[in-house]
Every structure is written in C-alpha cells, then in structure tokens.
Amino acid sequence: MPVFIGIDIGTTSTIAVAMSERGEALASASRSSHLSSPQPGFAEADPAQWWANTQTVVREMLAELPRDCELAGVCVTGMLPAVVLLDRQRRVLRPSIQQSDARCGAEVEAMKAALDEPDYLARTGQGLTQQLVAPKLQWLKAHEPEVYGRIAHVFGSYDFINMHLTGHLTVERNWALEAGFVDLSDHCIADDLVALSGLPAEVLPKLVASHDVIGTVTAQAAELTGLPEGLPVFGGAADHIASALAAGLTQAGDVLLKFGGAGDIIAIAGKPEPDRRLFLDYHLVPGLYAPNGCMASSGSLLRWLAGLIGGAESDDVLKQLDQEAAAVPAGADGVRALPYFLGEKTPIHDPLARGTITGLSLGHTRGHIWRAVLEAIACGFRHHLDVLAETGRPATRLIASDGGSRSRIWMQIVADICGQPVHVLSDAFGSSIGAAWVAAAGSGLAAWDDVAASVRIGAVLQPSPEGITAGDRIYADYRDLYASLKPFFARGDQA
Known about the structure:
Elements: E1 2-9, E2 13-20, E3 25-32, E4 44-45, H1 47-64, E5 70-78, E6 84-86, E7 96-97, H2 105-114, H3 117-124, H4 133-143, H5 145-148, E8 153-155, H6 157-166, E9 170-172, H7 173-179, E10 182-183, E11 188-189, H8 191-194, E12 206-208, E13 213-216, H9 219-225, E14 232-234, E15 237-238, H10 239-246, E16 254-259, E17 263-266, E18 279-282, E19 289-295, H11 299-310, H12 315-326, E20 336-338, E21 356-358, H13 366-390, E22 397-401, H14 408-418, E23 422-425, H15 431-442, H16 449-454, E24 457-461, H17 465-490
Parallel strand pairs: 1-5, 5-15, 9-12, 16-22, 22-23
Antiparallel strand pairs: 1-2, 2-3, 4-7, 6-8, 10-11, 13-14, 16-17, 17-19, 18-19, 20-21, 23-24
C-alpha cells in the first residue's frame, strides 16, 4: 500500500502525518515549537528546532505505521513567508523572522514613498505591507549589518527542511510570490524585485512548484529521520494553501478558516485579481489561485494567554478555559478584545496595532477574558469575509480546519459572529494532510480531483438567532474599538 508523508512546520508545533492513497491518516506525531517575541512586534523561531522536531516526529510516526506500507513520497509544508538566512557554508545566520513579524514598518513606508503601489500590486499580486521579504531584509541591513553582510541564501521554513532532506537548495513558488519577488506576467522571480532588498537575485535558490520532485532523501537524512534513502521529496507547500487543498476547496464560494498559530482565511479564484487588503497565492491545483488573508496571532495568542492566566500552555488548560468561557454569555459581560498582539496583517496591515482587553471589572473571571479573546479572533475572521464579499467573492460555505477547530465553543462563537454555519473537518491535520496530497498527486499515484472525494465533514455548528444578534453587536464594537485606538497605536513607543 503506497503511503505519503506530510510534514508541517507550524508556528506552534511540528506535525508529521502518514496518509494512504485514499486520504486516510494512518499515523501521526507532533512536537511543540517555540515562537519568540523578544521585542514588541517581533516574531522569531529557531530553524534548528524545526529540523530536530522533524527528526523526532517522523521517527515516531513511522513506528506507528503498519508493516505493509510502502512509502512513496514526502512533502513539507510550513508558514510563509518565514525568512531563513544562510551563509555560504549553509549555516543559519540568525533566528527566522516569521511571517507574523511586524518590525519593518519604517522600511515599508520607505518602499511606499519610492514605488507606485497600484503598479506593484498589479505586477506582484501583493500590496506594500510588512508581509514582504524585501523590507525585512532592509531592516536587517539597517539594524544587523553584520548578519546582512553574510547573507548568501534566503528562503523559507519548508525549504530549509527540504535542504536537510535532499541536500538541495530550492524555493517554492508561493513563498516567492508572497515575498513579493514574482512577476505575475511570467511567473518568474524578477531581479529588480529582489533588488528592493538590496541583495542580488542569486540569494534566492531555484524556483520550484509544490508538486515538483526536487530530490530524494539522502543517506544522512535517512539515518536521522528513519525515512528510506532515495524517497522522492516534493517542492513543498504554504501551510494555509495545503490546508485549503486538504479541505477540498476548489469551488467558488468555499472559504476555509484555518485555526493554526495564525488565523488564515482562504478563498478560490480562477484568475489573479489582486486586492491590497489580501494576499495572493497559487492554489496547489494547477490553474487556480487562492486570494487569502492572515491574522498574525490566533492559536499563538491563545497559548500565550493560557500560560498567563492558566499557568500552562497545555491542551488540558486550553480545554478548561474553554469550559469556563462556555459558562459566560455571548459578549463576555462587556469585556472586549483586539487580537493584534503581534500587530496585524490583513486586512488592516497595521504593524503598530496592539492587543487590547477592555471593559474589565473586579467581577469578571478568566472565563470572561478567554471568551472575549475567542470572540475577538472570530471578529477578525468576519472582517475578512466582509472584504471577500466586497471583492465579489462572498462566502457560501465556511469550512474550519487545523488544531483550533477542535474547540466546540470557539466554532460556535465563529458561527454566531459570522452568521453562517461552520463545517468542521473531521480531522484536524489540515496542512500536513494537504502536503501529503501534494506528494500523492505529484507522484502520479493520485489525481487532484481525488482530494475532494476524501474530505470528511464532522460537526456543523449552526448560528442561532440570538447568537447572530449578539455577534453583530460584538463585531460592531470590535470595529469601533480599533478605529478609536488606531491613533494611540500610531504613536508607537513615543512617550
């Protein structure tokens, strides 16, 4: 029986899943990852931890597999565009600058002053925001010149794992597209776009598609991971787009809500139609596109908050806080929150925005705080649905995936605030299963159409009339609260 491996390099965990050719998860393993925020707006991670985690979870997953399984391919997915920097000896120069990092606001403003944003948007599919890699590299040039001067290679999280598996340097095309380095007219990396970083185009490795075979598992990687030497390795995939594939998103009107370390919202399009409030990616199914949004902190915010008010970031603490939040009425008795604890990406693109909890009194409990934050993140999803509707892509079906979708109270809150049923995938593997499907389709042992037939929906959370009424009130407060505090946020660290 052919089996395909998907490895997810996530913000808060590393996951490995073995999938049958019918889309069944046969075995899995996971390890926590650490997200560091050494200064306000900073988000960093240690690539060495990703590789160490990968070795551990792959070995644990392989130990669970039936003996008659025949491994046929592996594909790695991860957040993007995380920025991994190597020197000429392929040594990591510094912690990865994560996609949710908001340190480069001044550099983004400098790009806006130097470039015509509508032209840039039409050419690259991306607005001039902190998501781009060029301003992050310009920040390093200004603040860490000793690191900047040694940069020989720039790529992403799953590209880094692919290097360890195969020995080859490549960069997957969705990383390069969201980084702002791809010209949509020919779908190639453009030298002048890379030059906005101050670095030569040679720092970017060879551009590959997700389903391209980039090499095979080396003898050294086989010894470290337990994978067989010679196993084909595919180009890799952005985690949110892999989740969209695993959810069977191929029809207009389907929208995926991905509840990972960040919060992703992915729609489907037959052609690129850039909007600066959103990001643009290639769908993993050739010929389709995936306009999408990303909230900088979702699951990562909840785990931080659980450690703060619950004493630990464990799943048991998360479940306990969910139970306490379920006992609190909608609207958390007047407690409101903004989830911008790492600044915010789409749709407001405000790196200076900050997390806020307001309306507290001595009568409130940690259940109120927890519910208010769950409601705030749900409001962020609704904000994106409003933008999609304004751009002619109204959502007709909401599908929820990844770890946060296991929270029944959270999914009910999302249904009420968004005013639509939420269809929860029966498994929460999302990105890793999507990556495994890329390996299956890329190997020719499965077709892209096979994915939709394998999707299994579990619970469907229906909004209630009273929930919708409360949700509209909470959402209105959410939008008003940001509008009121935006001038305060804009002051930054000024005294």
